[in-house]
Amino acid sequence: MVKTIAGRSSDINDLYKITYQPLDESEVSDYISTVTKNASVQYDEDKILHIKNKIQYFVPYFINLMLDEIDKAAIKRNDPKITIEHIDEAFNAIIKNNDNFSDWKKRLTDYLPKEDFSFINEILTQISHKDQISIQNIYDIAVKHNKETDYMDFIKDLEQDGYIMESSQSYTFISPFLKEYWKRNNPIHNA
Question: Which string of DSSP letters, residue by residue, matches 64-117?
Answer without folding.
Answer: HHHHHHHHHHHHHHT-----HHHHHHHHHHHHH-GGGTHHHHHHHHHHS-HHHH
